[in-house]
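Slide 14.
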Amino acid sequence: MQAVVLHAARDLRLEPRDSNALQDGEILVRVEFGGICGSDLHYFQHGGFGDIRLREPMILGHEIAGVVVQKAPDAATQNGALQIGDRVAISPSRPCRTCRFCAEGKFNHCLNMRFYGSAMPMPHIQGAFRQQLVVSADQCHVIAPDVPAQMAAFAEPLAVVLHAANRAGSLAGKSVLITGCGPIGALAVMVARSRGAAHITVTDILDPVLKIATKIGADRVINVAETPDWTEEFSADKGTFDAMIEASGNPAAIRAGLEVLRPQSVLVQLGLGGDVALPLAAIVPREIEIRGSFRFHEEFAEAAAMINRQDLALSELLSATFPLDQAVAAFEMAGDRQRAMKVQINFS
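Slide 15: predicted structure.
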């Protein structure tokens, strides 16, 4: 089979790889579609992010969906509904289930996590951008036959956003600010709306993505590059917003958000970036809570269920799909925010 392998920054190659033999409880999936994530782009563009650097060739990718083509004899006991021919969304999260955080039910903080396409450990955890993938049956979530396979590949980023929404607490009747409208921010708009938010404001620096935000449920969008004093409208009387989902990782967005959050509000930090100087004079008197959000676990099943119900307009986020032999072009387009929201690769 062919796999998408990164050797160094912008050195992306299609290379043959052998498929692993099935072990107990495992299945073989023919991968259909894979979405290019922000972390994939960091590896492709820069060879890593922060202190995490590529040190050996690594298969990229973790947003995937495919079709079950083979299963071990006992795989049905792992997931009784799983049959050959089923289309599945595959969770890339593989906690050890034995460390102290797994014992506490905090699986997303597993000390021995094996998350597809990660250069954090050495040897690296190889990713899922390959034509065939052997997975544990309990990673698979069946997708309804009438759901397009491309939509199934949104399950992983949707799970990330659902975890962030859970960290925020109830959004029903709340005024919500979402900063950064890439794929994660756009999904946050959909999730906030599905959870009963009364008003959603979205900020970004690009009009094309803000236009999409309006189509998928934002009540107001603000181009902060064109309106740098936008916070003045929302900062009077100790602020406006009950909750903020920060999806950009930009220090300016974080500081601006802290100016417009009202007393006892919640800021969920979802975007990753560098160190940020926090204005304590804004946080302490208004008792603002800042909560991090990292990956997901049980939310993946919720994401698959939402996709099966076709609750969300996910097709609005899909900018382009490239065949496998044009993987480099797919990554180039995915890195251009003027042209692309979410780009997928067709492996079949």
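Speaker note: The longest helix spans residues 155-168.
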